[in-house]
Automatic annotation (TrEMBL):
Subcellular location: Cell membrane; Cytoplasmic vesicle, Clathrin-coated vesicle membrane
Alphabetically ordered keywords of this record: Cell membrane, Cytoplasmic vesicle, Endocytosis, Membrane, Phosphoprotein, Protein transport, Repeat, Transport
GO biological process terms, semicolon-separated: endocytosis; protein transport
Gene that encodes it: Necap1
Principal location listed in the UniProt entry: membrane
Protein name: Adaptin ear-binding coat-associated protein 1
Gene Ontology CC entries for this record: clathrin vesicle coat; plasma membrane
Positions of the UniProt region annotated as Disordered: 235-256
Domain NECAP PHear stretches: 6-163
């Protein structure tokens, strides 16, 4: 994994001043006013690079690019890079050589914007390192958790109910239309009409046999007995014209 890591450049500043700083007198922090700010001990170019999770502050020559000093940083803020208490343009860094020796020096920028970019580049890098660590930790915890087996066992089947239709393997269900009593009813043909039953006209015999009762007179002198007599009157009157019937048959005999 170390061989696959590549070095990326986070920040480049063409002008940086390097100072020798006195030992720290107390735990209050470093003060840039204690340095000889008008007479820097070295001037060159600063590059901030990263390789894996480690960042590097490299002080290089402006012309040749030769490395003057290097400060590896494992965390920020930390002991490898500290800010001074009286200015935002000066920092104290811990440089190291390949033999394991280390020393603390002061660096400063003439432009406040350069100091801001230097600070932000380190913050962004270690913010990314923190996120990568959390993601790696979560993935390791997920691998140790028991996994749910949601697959079908051998011979296990399921059925799907879609509305009132049940689908089975090998065929599709057909809808059934049932009427009252469990009998199947066919729908009427399109455009069909129901013919009305013909009503036969009343025959002449039925009209002749129909007897309409006479109207009842609305009078206070007529009683219930008179009403009954009026209803029986047409029956008795129908028996009176016997001679007319005899004369009718006589006419038929004469004609023959």
């Amino acid at each position: 994994a170390a061989e696959l890591e590549y070095e990326s450049v986070l920040c480049v500043k063409p002008d940086v001043n390097v100072y020798r700083i006195p030992p720290r007198a107390s735990n209050r922090g470093y003060r840039a006013s204690d340095w000889k700010l008008d007479h820097p001990d070295w001037t060159g170019r600063l590059r901030v690079t990263s390789k894996g999770k480690t960042a590097y502050i490299k002080l290089e020559d402006k012309v040749s690019g030769e490395l003057f000093a290097q400060a590896p940083i494992d965390q920020y803020p930390g002991i490898a890079v500290e800010t001074v208490t009286d200015s935002s343009r000066y920092f104290v860094i811990r440089i190291q050589d390949g033999t394991g020796r280390s020393a603390f020096i002061g660096i400063g920028f003439t432009d406040r914007g350069d100091a801001f970019d230097f600070n932000v580049s380190l913050q962004d890098h270690f913010k990314w390192v923190k996120q990568e660590t959390e993601i790696s930790k979560e993935s390791q915890e997920a691998d140790t958790r028991p996994k749910l087996d949601l697959g079908f066992k051998e011979g296990q089947t399921i059925k799907l109910n879609i509305g009132n239709m049940m689908t089975k393997k090998g065929g599709a269900a057909k809808p059934r239309v049932s009427g009252s009593g469990g009998l199947s009813l066919l729908p009427p043909p399109p455009g069909g009409k129901i013919a009305a039953l013909p009503i036969s006209p009343p025959s002449s015999t039925a009209i002749a046999n129909h007897v309409t009762p006479p109207p009842v007179l609305k009078s206070s002198n007529v009683g219930s007995a008179d009403i009954l007599l009026d209803l029986d009157a047409p029956a008795s009157a129908s028996k009176a014209p016997a001679s007319a019937t005899t004369d009718l048959w006589g006419d038929f005999s004469t004609a023959s």
